Amino acid sequence: MYGDIALFSGTANPKLAKEISQSLCVPLAKADVFRFSNHNIFCRLHHSVRSKDVFIIQPIAASYNEQGHMSSANDNLMELLIMIDTVKRDSGGRITAVVPYYGYGRTDKKDQPRVPITARLIADLISTAGAERFLTIDLHAGQIQGFFNIPVDELTAFYLLSDHMRAKKIENGVVVAGDIGATKRARNFAQALDMPLAIIEKRRIQHRDGSDAEALNIIGDVEGKNCLIFDDEIDTAGTIVQAVHFLKGAEAADIYVCVSHPVFSGPAIKRLTTSPIKEVVVSNTIALPPEKIFDKLTILSVAPLLGEVIRRIHLGISVGELFDE
After folding, report:
1. What is the mean pLDDT of the chain?
2. Which CATH number is 5-157+303-324 given?
3. N or C: which terminus of the chain carries fewer CB neighbours within 10 A?
4. Domain 159-300 CATH class label
C-alpha cells in the first residue's frame, strides 16, 4: 500500500490542477518550479513525499503564465520530467504522470522515410524519468498506449461533450467527420446522440495542365440540417474551418464544433471567430489565455473526471468500471 495522495501541479495548467484538487478534497502539495536566467528549469519540493502516492498534473502543450509569458510544449515536457525526477529522488511511493494533453501525439508512426516516431520517444522519456503510471485524455492515436512500458489509463472527454450537446436538444441534427481519419470518433458521437453520420472526403485531382487541387465531397445528407463536427483537437483550425465553409456551401443550417483539446495555434482564433460556426465546445485539458477566449467558445471541465480516476487509482478500484456505469 502507498501512503496518502500527494497532488502536484506543473506550471502548464494550474487552474485545472486546482479544480482537480477541489474535486478530490486534497490540497495541492507545494513545490517551487521556476526557470533560471539561462532558461534551465529547477524544482524543489516543500515537504517530503516519501512513500506517498504522487500525482503530477502537467499537459504537454504551450501555456501562458499570469504575466502573459509563454512556455512552449518543450518547456512543459522538460518541466514534467524534472518534477518526476525530483519526486523519485525523494523516495515517492508511486509516481503517476497526469498529462491531460499528450503533445507530439500526431507523430505516432513512420509514415514517410527518415522521420521520427516522437510519440514513442516521449513515452520513453516519461518512463525513464521515473513515472510508474500514466494518465491522459483522448490520445490522437490508440496505439500510443502501446508505446509505454508502464500502465496507461486513457480517459475520454467524449461523454462530457456528448452530454453537453444532448442537453441542447438539437433537432434535425447530423454528426460530421471533418475528414476520413475522424470517421470512427464521429460515428461513435453520432451513435451517442442518436443522429445520422456524414463524412467529408478530401481528394487530390490532377488537371490536364499538370496542376492539382483539393476537392471535397460529402458522404451523407447535410442540406438544411444542424451539423456537429466532432474530432480530438483543433490546432490551426484549417481543416475545421474548411469543413465549415464546405458544409455551408452544401446548405447546412447551424454548425457546432466539438473537440477534446483546444490547441489553438497560429491563425486558429482568427479562423474560428470569423467563420460561420455557432458554437465551439472544448474541454480544459489545455489552459487558454484571455486572448484565446471568444464569444462562441464553451469550455467544459475535465477536473471531476480526472479527480475521480485519481481517487480510483489510489484506492485500487477499476477505472474501466467508471465508464460502464
Report:
1. 93
2. 3.40.50.2020
3. C
4. alpha beta
